[in-house]
Amino acid sequence: MYRLTDVTKDYPKGRGVVQALRGVNLVIATGDWLAIQGPTGHGKSTLLQILGALDRPTSGTVELDGRDLAGLREGQLTGVRAISIGFIFQTFNLIPTLSAQENVEAALVPLRVAAAQRKERARQALAEVGLGERAQHLPSELSGGQQQRVAIARALVKRPAVLLADEPTGNLDEGTRDEIMTLLEYLWREHSLTLVTVTHDSAVARRAQRTAIMRNGRLTIADSAPRQARA
Amino acid sequence: MFVTYLLRELRRRMRQSIFIAAGLAVGVGLVITVTAASDGVSATQGTVLHSLYGVGTDVTVTQPPTAGSGGGTRFNVGGAPPGQQKAGTSFSRDILAGGGMGTIKSSSVTTVAGLKNVSGAAGALALNDVKLSGTVSAGTGQPGAQGGPGGGSVSSSSFTVTGVDPSQGALGPLSSATITSGHGLTAAESNASDAVVSSDYATAQNLKVGSAITVAGKTFSVAGIASAAQGASSADAYIPLARAQALADLPGEVNTIYVSAASASDISTVSAEISRALPAATVTTSSDLASEVTGSLASASSLANSLGRWLAVAVLIAAFGLASILTMSAVSRRVREFGTLKAMGWRSRRIIRQVMGEALVIGVVGGAAGVGIGYGAAALVSALAPPLTATTASGSGAAAGGAGGPGGAGGPGGRFAHASTAAHTVSVHLAVPVTLGAVALAVVLAIAGGLIAGSLGGWRASRLRPAAALARVE
Q1: Could you say which of A159, B112, B300, B440 is the most buried, measured as most Cβ atoms within 10 Å of its Cβ?
Q2: A131 and A153 in contact (C-beta within 8 Å)?
Q3: Does domain A2-223 fall into CATH 3.50.50.60?
């Protein structure tokens, strides 16, 4: 479970300071799916990075399962990311020189999983997203939707508690978008994930249990009533 | 995963990787070639100097001739005053004279041998054997006091003779020669009538082991034939020092002392000590002599030691710089990739290791190619380099006095000077040996190049904040 209390994030810009987050308070229960919407440049991605232990807040606390991420050292944050958090990016961010299988295996490298087990888990993860037959293909040999499936497999192969998706369908056509969102929804249910999605797309946001709006660094819960019950 | 990722990345950047490796290879190859050429020139120079000095000799001691001492030798014919012999009188003389060098007391050899850091000292006496024969014909010519030609019919010949100390076989003028036939002079032959002749002289005079030669009218038996080392100036004949002193009427005198130091680092100390002990003597070390070597060998030495080394260093620095810049540039292009890896929980040191591994492989490949280039270039230099010439002053004595011819009717009265100082030019082939040390140096340099480039790239990668790296637009 996430509990954010009075979180602020300032960035120096020229001689001034940009306040990317202003007093954000948020609770995300374990297994929740929260969609964050808002205009570009209003702090959505910053909030996602703080939730993902990629950045620290300027002030406030960010608790993940009772542990304040703001107080952890860099090495400890790396450990949290390696074990507990999976990321999905708009541009997929696959390593271009590695095959789909190797890209998925890369997520298990920090966990020191033995090579044979690593291969098997990666194979299973790819099969789960429907790419078992494409395991040896390079990213450049896959379509956008297939690359995002590889990215999802990579995020989930380590069995994280949290999945953070930054515009996961931003680079996909409508048909593929729906396929990916259906897959994400299935995985969220199947793996009891805590899922946070940043999106411009209302169609994507509507699939989440809850929606929050980020505007000028302030977060407002738009709909606190769960729209979908976990199956 | 480490190796797979590394090799795939290098394959993706194939052209850039080859370019960096080629740069390192050229630098490393140049270092090997220059080092080999420098070693080859040094070895050749050493050969020339050792030939001149004798193997094992670090310092030579000579005595400058005193004023007028380099004058010729007076020949008396038939006991009558010069110029007063009857026409038709035959004469024949065979004398052994100093080679125009000043002499040093044999006791000085003992003095030098007793100095600190001196491991051995041997005296030698370089002389000229002059044979003069002919018939006094009718005429009024007076002996040319300064060499005015007389009216006689005279023939003359000479050859060089060096008295060596047979008990010091490892030191002295014979030490650099190789006995090709017979044997050298042994300690037991200090007073014997055995001689060693040079192979050139033996060929010219048709001498073999067992043949007889005459020195100052005394017969010596050829005990051995010696072939001088490349670049060496050898005497025509070597006889025991004691016999040479007696025949030249120079008892207890030598004109060169050959000295070996206890170690190479002691040479300058030994040189200074000898100068203190024998203030009037000229003390020459191998480095002094090296500076006197002129010709293309000296030019090659200078080229290899100065320009060559600096060129190699400059190319290496350029190659290292190029490798570093291109590695940094590659890291810059992979910022999002590294950001993604960090987001997945890869630690900075794992990413640094990946970047350094890639740079190291390029360095090792460049080093291996550089070793090949170095061997090839060294072989090419060995095969194509024109013969080098080395010009050295062989001997340090100077003879004073005029040259003359036989005198007038009364017989030869002129004076003969037999200066031993002469410019000695030899043609030597430059061998360019690639040593294991040079190869090891090349490998170390290549690895260092890879590590430097990888360190800079890794340092840059490690400083990336994951959030900033992921936000980078590519």
Answers
A1: B112
A2: yes
A3: no
User: What separation in angstroms does the CA of A70 have from each of A9, A48, A53, A57, B222?
Assistant: 11, 14, 8, 6, 100
Pull the structure tokens for residue A191.
Answer: 């793996």
Q: Which amino acid makes up residue B169?
A: G
Give Dmax (Cα) for chain B: 120
Of A87, A95, A98, the CB nearest to B343: A87
Interface probe for A, chosen from B11, B336, B340 (most Cβ of A below 10 Å), is B340
SS (H, E, C) B60-94: EEEECCCCCCCCCCCCCCCCCCCCCCCCCCEEEEE
Residue B352 Cα, gap to closest chain A Cα (Å): 14
Residues 6 or more apart from B457 whose CB is under 8 A from it?
A: B324, B327, B328, B330, B331, B355, B356, B359
What length is written for chain A?
231
B243 phi and psi angles, rounded to 5 deg: -65, -40
Q: Using alpha carbons, select from B314, B418, B364 the residue that is nearest to residue B101.
A: B418
User: How large is the greatest C-alpha to C-alpha distance in chain A, in angstroms?
Assistant: 54
Q: What are A49-97's pLDDT values in tens digits?
A: 999 999 999 999 999 999 999 989 989 999 999 999 999 998 999 999 9
Q: How many residues does chain B have?
A: 474
Of B1, B346, B466, the CB nearest to A54: B466
For the entire predicted model, the pTM comes to 0.64
ipTM at complex level: 0.93
B182: region left, alpha or beta (phi > 0 left; psi from -120 to 50 alpha): left
